[in-house]
Design goal:
alpha+beta; Nucleoside Triphosphate Pyrophosphohydrolase; 2 helices
Length: 123
């Protein structure tokens, strides 16, 4: 089973940080990627957020582990972050409607993560 870590970075109740999967792609996902050998899920989440967006994850909350198809997704909620938003060679990073992240190949997992976040106290 492949293991990935993602970070939900909220700007408001309906706007979140999205990363396109390709510079011209309209497929959006949460910032994240594969957990490397010997890496802990939170380390991977921090690394991927910085690589894909320029943001440093300063404080987070683990939302859970979601198994979809053959992928184990470790999801974190960014409670505090710092840095200047930028994209990467892998794609664009933009504040998007949460609806943009609920379709496409990551939609099933993103919907599960979104539902847990919506029920998280103090969000």
């Amino acid at each position: 089973m492949r293991r990935v870590a993602v970070v939900l970075v909220p700007k408001s109740r309906t706007r979140v940080l999205g990363v396109s999967r390709g510079t011209r792609s309209q497929v959006w996902g949460f910032p994240g990627g594969y957990i490397e050998r010997g890496e802990r899920p939170l380390q991977a989440a921090r690394r991927e957020l910085l690589e894909e967006t320029g943001f440093t994850l300063d404080k987070s909350l683990k939302l859970g582990v979601f198994d979809t198809f053959d992928i184990e997704t470790h999801a974190y909620l960014a409670l505090q972050w710092s840095g200047k938003l930028r994209g990467s060679r892998e794609g664009r990073a933009e504040w998007r409607s949460h609806l943009d992240l609920l379709d496409g190949p990551y939609g099933d997992t993103n919907r599960q993560i979104w539902k847990v976040w919506r029920r998280t106290p103090g969000r």
